[in-house]
Each structure stands twice: as structure tokens, then as C-alpha cells.
Amino acid sequence: MPIAILKERAVARIAGPDAAPFLDNLLTARTPAPGEARYAALLTPQGKIVADMIVLATEGGFRLDVPRLAAADLLKRLQLYRLRAKVEIGLLDDLAVAVAWGGASPLVDTLAYDDPRLPALGRRFLLPAGEASQIAMVPESEWHAHRVGLGVPEGGQDFLYGDAFPHEADMDQLGGIDFDKGCYVGQEIVSRMQHRGTARTRIIPVALCGPPPAEGTPITAGGKSIGRIGSGVDGRALALVRLDRLEEARAGGHVIEAEGAALVPERPGWVRFSIPGTEDAREASA
């Protein structure tokens, strides 16, 4: 059964007597109870994603399973928001993030937690970075193939930090936004998009023949741009698309393509919004 080290992830620590309310006032999801893990994000005041993360509550405070490429900006912003709050903020360079899926069990004596986005993503765990290279693991690319197969986006590949709204990254579908909690940074914009139904751009899976085009490749239909390619594996990719333009293209009989490869939209079972061109589109929009 596969286990992979996620070298693209880093671990941050938020501790101190004010750690729980500090995070609760900033992140899109409620602060988890001890032993729980939740998917969340820190947003800009304009509602764009600074970094998405998995927040794990432990006896020693909170561990943030974060994208390495966004970690420095995330910690810098958390420091700015700290003000007089009694919290300690920093990276734990001595820890690595790993994931076990497909029935595999995390290593013993590690801090393990279920991926809160989707059960099929498996169980993640933290282990000493020095031990990671000594353990037989599958390549990280196999984890991404599994993720793409489930249709779950990844920041930096399928959406850009500082440029995407949570709805565009499907965070509302994957439990990353609590619409009933109190205020947090960027809440007004996110709530407005939810209640007005103005999230026209979404990440969706697409099927194709052969290897996917490179990340960032434009997706076109009838000579018009409707989105771009994200991460992919042979026969499948994730795509950031304008759903209204996708619907217009389908209605006009245009082929959806990227670098000459025809793309067929798909709708995973966890998606609750309508995707034009899929069998479940009418059911999702009902």
C-alpha cells in the first residue's frame, strides 16, 4: 500500500494561550478541537487565498500542514496580525509531512490525522525530517496522480496563491469554508459569492487521450479562451475554467481543447455544483 513523503509541504506551529482565538479570527474554518484536523485558508482582505492548509490541534498548540511555496508569506502575515495576542509562530523544519492512502497505515509513533477534505485522500502524518529519507516510500508523483484522479486541486499547480478565490479552488466543496462562523479576513467577499452564486470560475477534472498539456496551457473553445490546464496525469487533468463560457461552448457545439487535445469535463461525486457537459449537470443544478 502506498505511502509518500510530501516534499512540497511544510509544518508551522502556532502555540500560546491565545492561539485558538487567534486562528479562529483569521481562518476560513473554525479552529479544530484537540485531536481534530480541519481544512482552512488565510485570505487577503480582498478574499484571495494567501495559503490553504490543514490545521491540526495538538496538546502543544496547533500544527499547520501548509504548502512550502506559500509558507513564508503565510507566516509573515500571521506575524502582522499577531499584535498583542499571546502566540508563538514559526516553522518546524525538523518535521516532514507524509500521506498514506489506499488502505496503507501511517508509521507508528507519528502524529497522524485524516485528510479533512475527502476520506479517499487518505491519512497524513508528521515525522522527523531526518527519518523521512530512510523509509521506503513511493514517489510523490504517485500521490499527485491519486489526487488528480479524485479531482482534488492543489495550490500552486491548479490555482495561484494571491490570485484565486476559495470558491474557485473548490474550498467550499471540500469543507474549507465555515459559512456559519464569525468574522475572518476576507469573509464579506466569500459570503457574497456564496449567497449570490457568483462563482463562475471553478476547478474541474477533464478526461483526454494521452498525456496532459503543460500546466498553464490555455483551454479554448470556438477560438475563445475559457480557462487553463492545471496538474495532470496520463488521460486526466484538472482545469480552471469559466463555467458560463464552458456552457456557451457546449451549446454552440464547439470542441473544448488545449494544445489540440480534446477535453471532456467530468464531475466527481463530491462536487455539488453543476458542470456543463457532464451527465450529472442537471441533477447538480436542481
UniProtKB/TrEMBL annotation:
Annotated keywords: Transit peptide
Pfam family of the protein (one): Beta-barrel_CAF17_C
Residue ranges of every copy of the CAF17 C-terminal domain listed in the record: 200-272
Gene3D superfamilies in the cross-refs: Probable tRNA modification gtpase trme, domain 1
NCBIfam families noted in UniProt: ygfZ_signature
UniProt xrefs under PANTHER family: TRANSFERASE CAF17, MITOCHONDRIAL-RELATED (PTHR22602:SF0)
Entry protein name: Folate-binding protein
Species of provenance: Ancylobacter koreensis
